[in-house]
């Protein structure tokens, strides 16, 4: 009963809103909504954390800017100083070109250049927050076990949220790491678990529109590049002899590898493309999901000019579609974290296997799994 | 498209933050959790194996118990049979002994009776003899009052005593 009433109320409120907004718009002529700007503005990194607007006034959390100019050295200041169009201490926001929206300075030759910029941006804050959150969650679970073990109660099984966490962690540990890496999976388990839960947590936080969540972290190419670099390291640093032989002296006719190293070049590209694929896949999937949700939400503001009836119906449709997309994105949040971890595990497993010919590929399907 | 160009500052912080996250969790997080759960899984697997072994043992024990019970039952029957046989034997023996005893007693009684009878006969005989002697005396005293008769008798007696020798 209450559920039905809630839905009714919701539609009513949408209708009322649809009637009210155009009236307000008629009173004060507003510039047309620039959807592309809204969407990209939400997805891109920024030097400040923008919450919402009250009339003309923006409510933002200024964040520290840390830049190093080649000629003038280190500078640290709050991003609120940049609101002045003249900039602060020679640093100002670029309004055009490749570094649009980034902090630039003019060097002694009068050219606009990017200083070395390690500002604590919105994404960096979100990154720190999610890392801290993940650390607290995991270490509190580990601490729970430790406490029970010290009491001599090593058979204790956590319940509730901790129990769910245990099940989740073990499902990745057993289902992905153990199956894909192979023999010495325990060595790689910490990295792969960290990667999975980092991605998963940030995917989920990206869907929550309230501070300190809401930054588009896993849909940012620098973040996925960082993750891909770690996976690249895990693959290549601990790759065994068979793996490197496969790259430097593969089992092909001599003319393909001896005078002109064709195969070696191809294999070397393989080293780069594997993590590159991981990087692009995660970035594109999360980015696209966010674009769709934001575009659907923008429908509400785009249809304002079309009159109250269309606006109201489109608003309802947009909310319904957004809810649907949010649910879909929850699924995608898990799937993308899973895919990244599984592919990393498979690549690591491939770099650790004993012999290329005899050993079955790590992707092997065990007979009992095929019904 | 500056969206496709990774920002060096963010990458820098990402490498640091993720590195620290990985280091901390690899030291204080994941190995503890996975270790505890894996040990628990091993314990559970072992407990299940133990239970299966115990069940097996119980089954074999039950079989043994059945066997022992069967054996004891058989033994009981055998013993009962033996007891019956023994009883019969004992009774036989007792009967035999009683028979012998009674025979002996009977024999003794018979002998006693014989002796008594002999004695009685002896007594009767002596009494008869004395009686007959007395009677004879009386008869003789009456008959032998004449000499002729005395002589006849003497003759008769002498004849009689000579005859058996002849």
Topology:
The complex is a heterodimer of chains A (371) and B (166).
Chain A: H1 2-27, H2 35-43, E1 48-54, E2 57-62, E3 64-69, E4 73-78, E5 91-93, E6 103-106, E7 112-113, E8 116-117, H3 122-150, H4 160-181, H5 185-207, H6 221-237, H7 241-248, H8 262-302, H9 308-352
Antiparallel strand pairs in A: 1-2, 3-4, 3-8, 5-6, 6-7
Chain B: H1 8-28, H2 30-143, H3 147-162
3D structure, described in words:
Chain A is mainly alpha-helical. Chain A has 2 domains: 59-117, no CATH class; 122-361, no CATH class. Chain A contains 9 helices and 8 strands. Chain A has helices spanning 2-27, 35-43, 122-150, 160-181, 185-207, 221-237, 241-248, 262-302, 308-352, and strands at 48-54, 57-62, 64-69, 73-78, 91-93, 103-106, 112-113, 116-117. Chain A has a 3-stranded antiparallel sheet with strand order 4-3-8, with no helix packed on it. In chain A, a hairpin with a 2-residue loop joins strand 1 and strand 2 (57-62). The radius of gyration of chain A is 26 Å and the shape is globular. Chain A starts with a helix and ends in a 19-residue tail after the last helix. The model of chain A is unreliable at 18-27 and 358-371 (pLDDT under 50). Chain B is an all-alpha fold and 166 residues long. Chain B has one domain. Chain B is 91% helix and 0% strand. Chain B is built from 3 helices and no strands. The termini of chain B are far apart. Classes of the chains: A mainly alpha (371), B mainly alpha (166).
């Amino acid at each position: 009963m209450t559920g039905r009433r809630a839905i009714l109320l919701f539609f009513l409120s949408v209708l009322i809103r649809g009637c009210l907004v155009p009236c307000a718009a008629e009173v004060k002529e507003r510039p047309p909504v620039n959807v592309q700007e809204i969407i990209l503005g939400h997805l891109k990194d920024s030097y400040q954390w923008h919450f919402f607007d009250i009339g003309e006034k923006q409510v933002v959390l200024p964040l520290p800017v840390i830049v190093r100019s080649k000629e003038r050295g280190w500078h640290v200041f709050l991003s609120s100083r940049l609101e002045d169009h003249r900039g602060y201490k020679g640093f100002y926001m670029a309004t055009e070109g490749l570094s649009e929206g980034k902090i630039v300075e003019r060097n002694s030759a009068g050219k606009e250049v990017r200083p070395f910029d390690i500002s604590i941006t919105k994404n960096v804050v979100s990154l720190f927050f999610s890392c801290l959150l993940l650390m607290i969650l995991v270490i509190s679970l580990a601490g729970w076990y430790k406490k029970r073990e010290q009491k001599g109660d090593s058979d204790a099984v956590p319940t509730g949220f901790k129990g769910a966490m245990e099940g989740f962690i073990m499902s990745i540990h057993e289902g992905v790491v153990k199956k894909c890496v192979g023999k010495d999976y325990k060595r790689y388990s910490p990295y792969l678990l960290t990667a999975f839960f980092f991605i998963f947590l940030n995917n989920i936080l990206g869907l929550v529109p309230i501070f300190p969540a809401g930054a588009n972290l896993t849909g940012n190419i620098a973040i996925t590049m960082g993750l891909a670099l770690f996976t690249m390291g895990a693959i290549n640093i601990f790759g065994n002899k068979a793996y490197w032989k496969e790259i430097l002296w593969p089992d092909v006719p001599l003319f393909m590898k001896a005078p002109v190293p064709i195969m070696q070049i191809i294999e070397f590209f393989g080293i780069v493309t594997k993590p590159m694929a991981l990087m692009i896949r995660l970035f594109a999937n999360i980015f696209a999901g966010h674009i769709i949700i934001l575009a659907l939400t923008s429908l509400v503001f785009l249809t304002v000019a079309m009159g109250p009836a269309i606006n109201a119906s489109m608003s309802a449709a947009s909310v319904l579609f957004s809810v649907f997309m949010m649910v879909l994105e929850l699924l995608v949040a898990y799937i993308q974290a899973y895919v990244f971890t599984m592919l990393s595990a498979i690549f690591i497993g491939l770099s650790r296997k004993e012999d290329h010919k005899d050993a079955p590929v790590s992707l092997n399907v065990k007979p009992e799994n095929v019904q | 498209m500056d969206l496709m160009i990774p920002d060096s500052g963010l990458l820098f912080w990402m490498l640091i933050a993720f590195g620290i996250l990985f280091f901390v969790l690899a030291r204080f997080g994941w190995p503890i959790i996975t270790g505890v759960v894996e040990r628990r899984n091993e314990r559970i697997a072992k407990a299940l194996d133990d239970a299966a072994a115990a069940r097996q043992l119980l089954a074999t024990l039950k079989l043994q118990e059945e066997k022992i019970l069967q054996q004891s039952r058989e033994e009981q029957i055998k013993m009962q049979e033996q007891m019956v046989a023994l009883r019969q034997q004992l009774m036989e023996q007792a009967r035999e002994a009683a028979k012998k005893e009674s025979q002996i007693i009977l024999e003794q009684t018979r002998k006693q009776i014989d002796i008594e009878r002999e004695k009685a006969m002896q007594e009767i005989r002596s009494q008869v003899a004395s009686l007959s002697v007395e009677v004879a005396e009386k008869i003789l005293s009456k008959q032998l009052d004449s000499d002729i008769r005395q002589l006849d008798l003497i003759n008769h007696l002498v004849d009689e005593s000579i005859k058996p020798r002849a």
